[in-house]
Amino acid sequence: MSDVSARSRGLQVAEVVSVLVAFVGAALVARFDAGLSGAWVLIGVASAIPLYVVARGWRLPWWLHLGAAWLPAAVVIASAIHGYGDGASRASRYAYGAMILLAIIAWARDPARRLVAASGVILLTADTYLTAWWPWWGSNDAIKSMFGNYYTQNVFAMALVIGAAVAIGIVVAGSRLFVFAGFIVTCLAGAGVLASGSRAGLILLGVALLAGLALGIIARGWRGAVRAAVLAIAIPATAWFMTSPIFFSNSGSFFGVTRRIEDAGASIAGRISFWNDAIRLGAEAPLTGHGLKSFGPLVQCLGSARYSSNAHNETLLAWAETGIIGVIPFLALIGGVVLVVVRSLRPAPVTERRLRWVPSRAEVLDDPARWGALVALVLALVHLHFDFDWAYPAIIGLTGFVAGIAAAPVVPSRSATRLRATLAVALGVVLVASAVAGFAIDPYPGDPLLPISLERAGCRP
């Protein structure tokens, strides 16, 4: 009996250590240029493997492993087809998010574990804001856009929105210390979104607050509504305080970033132009696309009025550069998120709901992390199709965490046959091998937005 107890304690210790390793790995990835510095993205992949092993991730369905491995493998295949390695490190970034997804789904099988995972996401969000705040404060210019370790304020704001959505769910439906931590981080993240000046970030933060209001009403009635209302007031109050004369000597305030709203029309027009170009380019080479990092030079070759090295839409970028090989996994990703949402809202046989497709009070109160993560996942998927979010490993990892928390209750996990377990492990090996291969053959793994030359893209203007 003592041997059994010792083994049980050993497994618990291994579990705790594995969870810490996964989140510390994610924090380090985010700290070093959002994962673009050195080989931190591969370290991120490695940091999620122990949790996958401890949680016996091979018990998850084989088709989930196939979906996770397909996207990074497709990038390596596309690179081999076109005969160059530029852009192949995209496989490493995709593999990082996929490895976290599998590990969290396998481990977070009950509400308590999902709450722990959500708490990790909240801490990562706080670290993202604090890391960005110090240099921003040092600039002594409150009007300057905050962007932290990210190249652009839009992607930085989205990283904060993802964490804020999870925190909001816990604030309106959680209890005790978790509510307090969620409140603090929501205020900081919201202030960071305001300081970034990202229009899309502001809109999606508003959507997250509205979703939190709905969850709060479901879970706690008028008390939940009050919690959501307090958050809506506290966020701009925090932003004002963080840009007040206490910290900045200039006369600006966070309201100054709203000046950029005036050029919103030009931004939208630019994205529509990029999307049209991506659709057109993909149609010219539907099977294999034009090659990784070819979008920018080919847009030049087309003579488009607007230029970008990225289509600002991950699915259309995959269509233009990798054709069917790369776009099918993205379509599967979109379908998978839709399936998670539908299965989450579909009533379980043992639950009683007043409205068939609206979660009950008990469901939200028992598992607030799940619902906050579901909101975060939907928002992440939406913004993924308006910017180059997945150029940064840090935000892919964050998406993997919230996707795992949201999907864990609806993805079956049971004892697998030896054949299925072997297949799952083999696909996991493919995933990791794709990450390593993609990083190794890419001459510029830390510069995902650097396009290839016009000559290599086959462009003769």
TrEMBL record:
InterPro entries: O-antigen_ligase-rel_domated (IPR007016), WaaL-like (IPR051533). Its main location: membrane. The keyword Ribonucleoprotein does not apply. The keyword rRNA-binding does not apply. The chain crosses the membrane at residues 12-32, 38-55, 62-85, 91-108, 115-134, 154-172, 177-196, 202-222, 229-248, 316-343, 364-384, 390-411, 423-441. It is a multi-pass membrane protein. It comes from the Bacteria. Keywords: Membrane, Transmembrane, Transmembrane helix. Residues 187-331 form the O-antigen ligase-related domain. It is found in: Membrane. This is O-antigen ligase-related domain-containing protein. It comes from Homoserinibacter gongjuensis.
